[in-house]
Amino acid sequence: MTRQDLRRLIVLLVVFALAAVVVAVPRWDLRLGGLRFERGGEGPLGLRLGLDLQGGIQLIYEAEGVHPTPEQMEGVLGIIERRVNAFGVAEPVIQQMGANRVLVQLPGIREVEEAKRLIGETAKLEFKWRHFNPDGSFEDRETGLTGDDLVRAYPGPHPNMPGLWVVNIEFNSRGAGIFEDLTRKIGGTNDQIAIFLDDHELVSPVVRSVIVGGRAFIEGRDFTPQRARTIAIQLESGRLPIPLRIVQEQTVDATLGRDALQRSLVAGYIGAGLVALFMLLYYRLPGVVALVALTIYTVVALAIFKLIPVTMTLAGIAGFILSVGMAVDANVLVYERLKEELRAGRSLLAAIEAGFQRAWPSIRDSNISTFITCAILYWFGSRLGASLVVGFAVTLFIGVAVSMFSALFASRTLLRLAGASVLGRRRALFLPLLQQAAPEAIGPLGRRA
User: Fold this and answer.
1) Are 327 and 294 in contact (CB under 8 A)?
2) Domain 125-239 classification at class level
3) pLDDT tens-digit series, residues 300-327
4) Torsion over CA of 374, 379, 385 and 391, rounded to 10 degrees?
5) Are 42 and 261 in contact (CB under 8 A)?
6) What residue segments make up the domains of the chain, in order of their start?
7) Which residues partner with 62 through β-bridges?
8) What is the CATH number of domain 3-46+253-434?
9) What is the mean pLDDT of the chain?
10) Using the 8-state DSSP alphabet, how is residue 158 labeled?
11) What is the mean predicted confidence (pLDDT) over 8-23?
12) What is the topology classification, in CATH, of domain 56-122+243-250?
């Protein structure tokens, strides 16, 4: 065993061990280099089960009559997420599609109309007068100032204190009048202007003096650029009346999903067993190496699915199973080249290296083609709201990428280790069983071809 082989083996063992820990622990909370990982789900091996496995509803909303900016869409996503969380949906999926669409997946939901009403309402932004009583208690009084009166909200640097940030706000003529009267009443007192978005308090600043003209800024000691930007987005989202209309609605039965999951698992077990049997009986020792590498591939791929995390729908499972077949196919290409090199009279280690080198162009080209296909499927699926297509593309892409690591690193390392051990003295173990007794071809002049 060379030092390079030893280093490769150590790397392989470390990667496998870390991946096995991730797969084995259903839930975890790790801090690595300042990064926080909080992952896990309720499905097999802690993977998140997708909408079509749990049942529920999928909705696609589109902004109607307006062309929202990226900041406005970000605000809409935040509002929907807060409303869905308040609704008590477990592991929802909320993501933007294109420039003006939002995908919402609600696993396990049954009150479809209630969920649609909750999500579809325009955000309610209110400015209230928080009056403090002599005993220290307070009451929030209505002012009539709402998000309809807000023209603009945007972050910016503090005009008088460098290094600090504020949220600038501008009201229309009606709002400017109400705001001026309100600030005249509470300016210089301990009373505050409490700003609520969907009955959730965003911020409650004090007023130092009367403000005329409908322009002001909100400051705070904790106002970092990101904090100021977040508040501005929330105010803009509440102010902007973005009408949302449902362009696609899909319900999934949970029983059908569970049955399909069980059948998919049974099909996967049968397929994996047949592949393993073929590799062992036909390729012998290289077949054993392929199965070990395939085990490493499976563990690493599942670990990546949990770390991202990937929501495993039925289409996603299909993409993963397909990538398993492609991982085996890469090993078959290598072993066929290995067979040819051994029959040509090369030494075992030289034949192993030559086999991988000759098989690499075919593996590379086929996988690059698959990557391109996955990218196209992902793009179209994201644009058209076909989450099943997106799940298939993501799992297939990850699986093929890991299969390249499995075939070209894991299989190569393990096969070289086997060739350098006592097993390498028995070249017959590295040749397919049905071809070991095949006679060598004789040329027309009596020379061996």
Assistant:
1) yes
2) alpha beta
3) 998 888 888 777 777 888 888 888 888 8
4) 20
5) no
6) 3-46+253-434, 56-122+243-250, 125-239
7) 101, 245
8) 1.20.1640
9) 81
10) -
11) 87
12) Alpha-Beta Plaits (3.30.70)
Q: Which residue has the higher pLDDT, 392 or 39?
A: 392
What SS3 state is found at 160? coil
Residue type, 50: G
Residue 339: band (very low, low, confident or very high) from pLDDT cuts 50, 70, 90: confident
The more confidently predicted of residues 369 and 253 is 369
Strand locations in 52-178, DSSP E? 56-63, 93-97, 101-107, 125-132, 138-146, 150-157, 165-171
Distance CA 296, CA 159 (A): 58
Q: Output the pLDDT for position 444.
A: 37
Q: Are 106 and 94 in contact (CB under 8 A)?
A: no
CA dist 9 and 76 (Å) reads 49
How many other CB atoms are there within 10 angstroms of residue 277's CB atom? 11
Show the CA angle centred on residue 147, arms to residues 142 and 149, nearest 5°. 90
Residue 423 has pLDDT above 70, yes or no: yes
User: Quick one: tokens of 273?
Assistant: 């067993």
Which residue's entry shows tokens 């397909």?
322
CA distance 39 to 449: 59
